[in-house]
Each structure stands twice: as C-alpha cells, then as structure tokens.
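Form 12-C: Joint structure prediction
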Amino acid sequence: MIELKHLSKTYGGGKHQPVKALNDLSLQVPEGMLYGILGPNGSGKSTCLRILCTLLAPDSGTVTVSGIDALTQPRQVRRLMGYVAQDVAIDKILTGRELLSFQADLYHLSSNKRDERISELIDLLDMGEWVDRRCGSYSGGMRRRIDLAAGLLHSPQLLVLDEPTVGLDIESRAVLWQVLCQLRDQGVTVLLSSHYLEEIDVLADRLAIFDSGSVIAEGTPSDLKKALGGERITLKVREFSDLHESARLRNLLLECPGVRDVVINKSQGFSLNLLVDTQDVSEVIRRHLMDQDVPVFSLTQSRPSLDDVYLQATGRTLMDAELAVVGLRDPKAERKQSM
Amino acid sequence: MTITSPSVQSESLGKGDQRPMPQVSAASEIFQETLALTRRLFLQLIRRPSTLVAGILQPLIWLILFGALFANAPEGLLPGGGSYGRFLGAGVIVFTAFSAALNAGLPVMFDREFGFLNRLLVAPLRSRASIVLASVIYITLLSLIQSLSIIVAAGLLGYGWPTLPGMLIVILVLSLLIFAVTALSLALAFSLPGHIELIAVIFISNLPLLFASTALAPLSFMPRWLSWLASINPLTFAIEPIRASYSNNFHLTDIVLIAPYGSLNSLTCIFILASLSLFLFLAVRPLLDRRLN
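Section 2 - Result
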C-alpha cells in the first residue's frame, strides 16, 4: 500500500544549524493493516507523515501509495487518504457540522453523499449532542473526534494519524482506538504515529521504530519483543554510577552464566539492562556481584517491552530520548516549517 | 485489548469507495471548492462582524471629522470650486477599498498559523488557485460593500452622489485597485513569517500611502517632491476618476490629473490601474504557486 524508499529531509541551513529530520529512511506498509510508527519526539515521525501526505517534499527518495507516485501525482494520492494532523486545525467560528460539510466540498462529495456520510460519522463518533455547536467551544476530545470525522468523510482507503491521542481524555481515546480497529477490520490501511508505547503495542499489527530519522526496528510487536528473547533485568549498583564503573560491571556480568547481553543505559544514571535466559538468573547475578564485593542498589526483572527494543538499538529508553530533545528543539523554527 | 465504549456503534466506516467515480468536470469541482472556501470566509464575517463594522466606521469618522475640519475653507480654494467634503469623499471611498484589500492576507495568514491551510493542502483540490480565488472574491465583495456604504454616507452628509455611469466607473476603478492590493497582500501573507509582521506592514504602508496621494489635498497644495510621489501613487489613479465621476458632465477623456510629468484623463488612469493589477498578479503568481504547491 505504502512504499517509502530512501527518504532524506534536512531542515534549516543558512543562518540555522541544519537538522537532518530523515536519514535514508525506507518503509513498507502492507494494505489493510494497522501500522504503528513509534519513536520519541524529533525522531522524524511527523516529517515522514507530512511527506507521505504531500505536505512536504523530501530532499531525495520516493513515495508510492497504491502504486501511485505521490511526488508526481499528489492529487491522486490525496484522494486515497485521510489525514489527521498532530495539531487539530479546526475553524472555531464554524459548527462541527459546517466544518464537515466544508471538508466534503473540498473532497467534491455530492450533496446526497455528503449528508449521508456526515450523518453516519456523527452516529459513529457519538457527536450528535454537540456537532451543531461552534468548534470554538469544543474540548480536546471533541476536537479530535471532529478532526477524525473530517479525515474519514470521503471513505479513504488509507488513514494517516499523527499522534492522535496526545492530551486526550480516556473516553475519547477509547472511542478513537475502537474506530481505528474497526477501520482495520474493514480493510482500511491505518498508519498511526505515536510516542506512547502501550498504544502501539496494543493497536498495531506491525510497527516501525524511528530514531534520528531512520527505522531502527520493524516487525510485529510480539516478534520484536520475542527477538530480544528471555527476561529483562535492570540493575543499579548505586543511584548514579559512571561510565567507567558501568563498563567494568558490564564485563563482570557478561561472565555470569545465563546473561546474554548487557546494555548500559547512559541517560538513567548508567544503569545496566541485562538480557537473561531465565527468571532464576537474578539470584545468580546477586551472588556473583556479592562475591566481587559489588553492592546492589536495585534489581528489577520484567518481560521485554517495546521500550526494550528501542533501548537495545539506541542505548536509551524512549522517555530518556524524549527528555534529551527537550530544549534542543526550536519550536518557532518548527512552526515556521510547518506553515 | 478490551475497550468498552457504549457510544461506538459498528456501522460501516466505508473503505475507499471502489465504485467508478462519476465523471465530474474540472469546472464543476473548482466551482464547488471555491464556493465552499468563499462561504467559509463569509460565515466568519457574519459571525464576527467587527471587521466589517470597523472597516466602515474608520473611513466614516475620517469623512465626518476631516470634512468638518475644512468646512469653512474659502470658496474656490479647491480645483473645480466644490466643497472640501465633496473633494474628500472620493479620497475616503478609495481609502476604504484600499484598507480592506490590504487586509486580504490576514485570513490566509491565520490559516497558515493555525494549521488550517494544511487541511486545505491535503485535500484533493482540483486547483489550489481556488484558495486564492476565494480570497479575491471575498475581499472584493467586502471592500465593495464597505466602499458603497461610504458612498451612501458621503451622499447623506451632503457631499454629492456619483452619476449612474459614474457609479459604474466607481465600481470598475475600485475593483481594479482591490485586485492589485489583494495580490500584494496575499503575497505578503505567504512570504512573511507571521501575522504580527503582516499587521506591521499594513500599519506602515496604510497612512503614508493615503497622505502621499490626492485623497486629502490636490497636487497644487503639495511641495514638488510630494506632488511627484502623489502622481505615481496608485491611489491617486483611483481617486481622480472617481472624483470626476461625481460631475454631471463626466467624460472618460476629460483631464483629471495634472501631474508634474504630464496630464492624464480618466481612461489613462483606469488603464494604469488595470495594468498594475495584471502586473501584480503575474508577479506574485510564482510565489503563490511555490507556496501552494
């Protein structure tokens, strides 16, 4: 359904330090699948989706949707897809119904089809009580629902959603999740970006994990976690260690039977993330460290998660990656770029 | 996963309609999208009428206060020998249209800033020129409504009425000026970084262009350098034919502007305005194409 090949995109230059948003990114999304893109802020998710939706041109690479080249035939691609942007863009002066009607005209629906679809979507997204009020009075959840309805109005074959559940209340999120699953069941390809692990883990049939503008892992959530294998142990010998100590401990732990790999988590006080074969290994590790006179500050064991997949590939957790970009990004420049 | 949402029913979401699309002409699609875009702008105007009201009140205050300021000026001081109020009327009518058209870029700029423009750009518009066309239609109608209100107000204040053929000239001249200024304002809306900068440009250009024209005083009152400026100011080319159209024996070939570089009749002024309007639209087209595509 979607084929992105060798996409590169750099922002800035001139006065500003250039920022490489996409770095030779390639991705294939099969038809009829709910496909997740997971990655921290600044990993290139939105840039990738904006290029797919023909809002932005890549510096290099190709974009194909249902066999149509999105760079040379953007209008045909726009007909096929619905786009729900990260920031809900609604006209506060219009009522929800007027906004949907406006959207229907932009997609050239006939008046019969328009009224029929608006009515269906009002029922589907439970908007009947407030759809005739002005959008300016809507809560975040209502705005997201009306935005989703606008994206679905023309019955697209592909629905692209850029972080749609950020800041949503639980009820609206549940409605959104349910609708996305229904869409997938009816054969619509859904491409969803998120930095919420559990959202992608629960919803996505397949996913790609983005980091620094590239795909660092791709597969089904269970396959990706299975590929890591075994159990995960997070170990700290003190609250804040240092690289030298962690590197020494890493070598020590790799000697332990049952320990397959050790990753140093630099952004969490140089804690150690161990990949182990069985649950019993934790006691072996404790004993091994005690024998070497190494104290144990904390030791926790867990099943592998998508965060571990990310950690394995990058040496940091998703949350740390989020925190690392806070302050580094220039919201003003990004806003200007998106205008 | 367990999701319990009683509000969600399981009717068809309708996957991309696979039935063959009925053949719809490009013109019909352009009409549908342009109408929708224009209707939205007018809905905004009706529900937030402050733009319309302020656009009428400001020139009305000018007309009343400025007209009163020179009400007792000696007879025969102005060319043609009419009252100052009558002289001022044409200037304020043009200024009304000019100010309204200068604001044409603001709705586009707000759509850019709030991300609404992206909603338009991801839609399969038959032609993205519809976005520009809707803005031009909206601002032309708004400016004409405001200018016609000022014509009526000036008439009621005793500053005279244009003749019927003169009225057609007024509408033609105002439309040409509005097209030219709208092109400029839309170009600014797509090239400036935000609405603060656009409003700053509007503030900076508005009054100097008014003062450096024949809206408030004839060329003969001005020092030579200012009369030169006023003689090349597009507002002057709009003001003079409109002023002339208030005369009972109005002819398009009558001299209306004795500029330092020569004399111009109404027809020449209209031709200059039409050329300027065409030139500006052609000049800003590459920028609009680049920004919209």
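Section 3 - Comments
Chain A touches chain B through 56 residues (CB under 8 Å). Chain A is about 40% helix and 25% strand.
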